[in-house]
Amino acid sequence: MKIKDRIKEFKRVMASELIPNEKNWRRHPSSQSEALKGALVDIGYADALIAYEDNGKLILIDGHLRAETTPDMEVPVLITDLNEEEATKLLMTHDPLGAMAETDQDMLVSLMENIEFESAAVRDMVEGLLEVEGVTGTGEGTEVLLDQAIQLKPQREYIVIMCDTGDEFVELQNCLDLKMVRRGGYKKKTSKSPDEIGIERVITAERVLNACRNSK
Predict the structure, then answer these.
(1) Phi-psi category of 33—alpha, beta or left, where left has phi over 0 and alpha has psi -120 to 50?
(2) Model pLDDT for residues 114-171, shown as the tens digit of each residue
(3) For residue 49, is pLDDT > 60?
(4) Are 36 and 15 in contact (CB under 8 A)?
(5) Judging by DSSP bridges, how do beta strands 142-148 and 134-139 pair with one another?
């Protein structure tokens, strides 16, 4: 298999001089924008934008939000020798290829236990990578299997169910098979911040829909 190297130059360019690609199909919600700002403040630029040349202008392929976020900075840019058609192919496949990677949840949890992020938006983004999974915790002095509590996240749709009586809550708990969960995020418990354990209060729509289907 013969693979060509399409990077012809690396240089730093004022972000405001980079031309947004009119074919860019990605849209950036405010939550992503805030998370990117937090990551840039916390870490800085540690990767390069990607562009191609057209009539002496640099057209972006990857890095639109970074360029938009830091217009007054010189930013690192990888300049390719791609033509417009090839640049469009890369534009279409760059993010989806990265998104196909699977998550090693155990490794992710291990990383998160030892890393602190200053930005709340970055913390929300990283915590959002966690799936609901079993973790070992203790309650009432007895070791039990607990699920990691799902956290409320931005860019989601919610329905809130209010119980007027304890009997309603018990019936709902049985119907939805609500479990004991460890609250307080993903950090390891310490003597100063022990695990909070209680009935889960946030569940996926899939579980509610399955309960409805099974009741028919």
Answers:
(1) alpha
(2) 888 888 888 878 877 765 333 333 334 334 445 556 666 655 677 888 888 888 888 8
(3) yes
(4) no
(5) antiparallel
| 197 neighbors 139 (Cβ within 8 angstroms) | yes
**Calpha distance 49→61 (Å, rounded):** 8
- Give the class (CATH, top level) of 7-99: alpha beta
Domain coordinates of the chain in residue numbers?
Answer: 7-99, 105-215
pTM of the entire predicted model:
0.64
Contacts of 148 (CB under 8 A, 6+ apart): 130, 132, 133, 134, 135, 181, 182, 186
Compute the distance between CA of residue 61 and CA of residue 80 in angstroms, rounded to an integer.
10
201 is written with which tokens? Answer: 């209060």
Residues 162-189 as b/e (b if ≥16 CB within 10 A, e otherwise) read eeeeeeeeeeeeeebebbebbeeebeee
Helix, strand, coil distribution of the chain in percent, nearest 5: 35, 25, 40
Per-residue pLDDT tens for 201-212? 788 888 888 888
User: In the chain, what is the greatest distance between 2 CA atoms, to the nearest angstrom?
Assistant: 72
